[in-house]
């Protein structure tokens, strides 16, 4: 093991939703077995793999059997009623692991969806890849609540928001400990969506796809956010190479219509040309990477200069597992994999500021080749496509120098609190309704039991007993849900609300302190400006008074009266200029000057009738 604990220099990460639902997913065993074969055949081989919807030990062990020579360490995570479906495989030892369940995770009444029953959460693994104190990777694998409606009408948006908040807290803690943090999985969210920005702004992490493809799509072309960009409908090839679409692709056989799937089941191969329009494909699978700041990494190294640290770079990112099953012809899952290659480099000048961006010093051609048994997508057959688009920057910038946000915008906290308030009102209504149903049904059942003694026919008594039994069962179930589940969810909402309000308070205090600091630095200049303006004002008044008293000794006539007008700061009086007034008025002050005895504050005396 000592020989294995060396700096990897290159780190390859893979995340895949396997679609391994027992009794529901078709040809599950064959597909997951082939997934293990494909992972083992990857070149370069992956070092860390995160799997979602791998529900059974049987499928997990089948994948481990094929990959144990490159990924000798692994953990199958148990959670929920039917299992969490999460697994992490690693080249290096797993020192610690945890299954952290999300506090908010669907509703038991939606049994046909199953999110609550599987106990979705975060699979955590602490992986040591070297002997140094900081030679640790903290890997987080998750599968968030699925969206069943489009935002903002999604009734589970509060659940996914709370899950994104929890995930961001976990991954931020890993970075603050000075470790490389990997967040991977099926997040069931679109790029730059509310949940996506919550993760990338509440934790100092980067979406690796957007690091190399910052102009990639932010949803399917049929989604409103992507429509607003005015982009043409992308092709299958563009979605794979540029947009990182891992779900709902026209190339995925599980998204085909019933007729195409029937033809496929009969052994017919249906090619998908690279230029096929792909309006529904979207990116739901992500790899987030957070590198520790320069001040926290290499704490065990005394040989490197203070500003010369090791830094992590994103070298490549791609969509994988696109090839169909060799004998069945179907896709290996209803998702494609997301794969990333990172590198750790020594002797890199890393800016101390995490918000400094340096211009890319070099670029690397990004070229992916997708071999298929029936030749559907091959970028080598379309060299003009690769050459016509700009190559994304390779490893020109370390992750720790890319821009990050330490805190969410203030309005984001307000939006989250609005979601919490709305969902809290809904849950309180649900609790009241379900407990009321339980009480009413209990009274009805008692009434049916009493009525049995008075009915003249046995079949009527049977109907009353049946209604009483079924109704009471439904009432008790509703009572348990309203009294236990809804109560626990309301308490989880209170915890979530407190965390958001506390973070909002800290953000406001930080903003206030920053503003006070800026005002303090600007105060001397403002006071000097006010003093200069005040002195100029006094000079102007003195000049006008002297001018009035020396007008050939003449008395002031009836029409020579004083007229008070608003003082125009910064603009000299025209008649003063004509008579030789030289006092220059400065820029307008933030506050009016101090009043002078006998003269209104901020008033210029202008003699009329000259």
UniProtKB/TrEMBL annotation:
GO terms (BP aspect): sphingolipid metabolic process
Pfam families from the UniProt entry: Exo_endo_phos (PF03372)
Family: Belongs to the neutral sphingomyelinase family.
Gene3D superfamilies: Endonuclease/exonuclease/phosphatase
Source species, domain of life: Eukaryota
Segments forming domain Endonuclease/exonuclease/phosphatase: 14-293
Pathway participation: Sphingolipid metabolism; Lipid metabolism; sphingolipid metabolism
Topological category with respect to the lipid bilayer: Multi-pass membrane protein
Stretches that traverse the bilayer: 435-455, 461-486
Secretion signal span: none
Name of the molecule in the record: DNase I-like protein
Region (Disordered): 576-610
InterPro entries to which the protein is assigned, alphabetical: Endo/exonu/phosph_ase_sf (IPR036691), Endo/exonuclease/phosphatase (IPR005135), Sph/SMPD2-like (IPR038772)
Main localisation: membrane
A GO cellular component entry from the record: membrane
One GO molecular-function entry: sphingomyelin phosphodiesterase activity
Keywords: Hydrolase, Lipid metabolism, Magnesium, Membrane, Metal-binding, Sphingolipid metabolism, Transmembrane, Transmembrane helix
Subcellular location: Membrane
């Amino acid at each position: 093991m000592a020989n294995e604990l060396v700096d990897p220099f290159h780190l390859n990460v893979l995340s895949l939703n396997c679609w391994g639902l027992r009794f529901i997913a078709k040809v599950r065993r064959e597909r997951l077995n082939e997934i293990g074969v494909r992972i083992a055949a990857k070149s370069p081989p992956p070092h860390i793999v995160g799997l979602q919807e791998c529900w059974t030990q049987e499928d997990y062990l089948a994948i481990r059997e094929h990959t144990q020579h490159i990924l000798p360490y692994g953990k199958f995570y148990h959670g929920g009623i039917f299992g969490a479906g999460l697994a992490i495989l690693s080249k290096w030892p797993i020192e610690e692991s945890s299954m952290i369940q999300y506090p908010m995770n669907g509703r038991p009444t939606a049994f046909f969806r199953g999110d609550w029953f599987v106990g979705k959460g975060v699979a955590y693994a602490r992986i040591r890849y070297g002997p140094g104190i900081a030679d640790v990777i903290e890997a987080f694998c998750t599968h968030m609540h699925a969206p069943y409606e489009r935002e903002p009408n999604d009734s589970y948006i509060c659940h996914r928001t709370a899950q994104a908040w929890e995930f961001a807290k976990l991954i931020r803690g890993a970075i603050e400990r000075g470790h490389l943090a990997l967040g991977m999985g099926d997040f069931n969210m679109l790029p730059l969506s509310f949940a996506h920005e919550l993760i990338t702004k509440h934790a100092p992490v980067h979406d690796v796809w957007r690091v190399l493809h910052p102009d990639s799509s932010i949803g399917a072309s049929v989604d409103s956010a992507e429509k607003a960009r005015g982009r043409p409908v992308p092709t299958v090839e563009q979605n794979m190479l540029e947009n990182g679409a891992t779900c709902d692709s026209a190339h995925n056989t599980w998204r085909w219509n019933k007729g195409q799937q029937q033809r496929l089941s009969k052994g017919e191969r249906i090619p998908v040309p690279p230029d096929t329009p792909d309006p529904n494909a979207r990116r739901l699978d992500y790899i987030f990477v957070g590198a520790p700041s320069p001040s926290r990494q290499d704490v065990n190294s005394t040989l490197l200069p203070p500003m010369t640290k090791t830094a992590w770079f994103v070298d490549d990112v791609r969509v994988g597992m696109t090839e169909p099953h060799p004998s069945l012809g179907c896709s290996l899952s209803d998702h494609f994999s997301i794969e990333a290659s990172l590198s750790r480099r020594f002797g890199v000048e890393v800016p101390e500021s995490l918000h400094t961006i340096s211009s890319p010093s070099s670029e690397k051609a990004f070229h992916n080749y997708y071999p298929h048994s029936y030749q559907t997508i091959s970028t080598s057959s379309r060299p003009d496509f690769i050459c016509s688009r700009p190559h994304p920057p390779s490893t020109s910038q370390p992750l720790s120098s890319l821009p990050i946000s330490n805190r969410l915008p203030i309005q984001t906290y307000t939006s989250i609190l609005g979601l919490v308030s709305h969902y809290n009102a809904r849950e309180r209504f649900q609790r009241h309704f379900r407990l009321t149903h339980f009480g009413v049904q209990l009274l009805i059942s008692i009434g049916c039991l009493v009525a049995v003694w008075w009915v003249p026919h046995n079949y009527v008594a049977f109907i009353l007993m049946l209604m009483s039994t079924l109704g009471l069962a439904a009432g008790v179930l509703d009572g348990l849900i309203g009294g236990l589940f809804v109560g626990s969810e309301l308490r989880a909402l209170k915890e979530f609300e407190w965390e958001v309000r506390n973070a909002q308070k800290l953000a406001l205090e930080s903003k206030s302190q920053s503003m006070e600091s800026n005002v303090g630095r600007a105060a001397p200049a403002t006071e000097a400006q006010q003093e200069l303006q005040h002195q100029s004002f006094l000079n102007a008044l003195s000049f006008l008074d002297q001018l009035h008293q020396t007008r050939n000794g003449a008395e002031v006539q009836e029409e020579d009266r004083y007229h008070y007008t608003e003082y125009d700061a910064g603009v000299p009086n025209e008649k003063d200029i004509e008579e030789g007034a030289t006092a220059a008025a400065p820029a307008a002050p933030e506050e009016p000057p101090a009043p002078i005895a006998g003269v209104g504050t901020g008033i210029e005396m202008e003699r009329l009738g000259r």
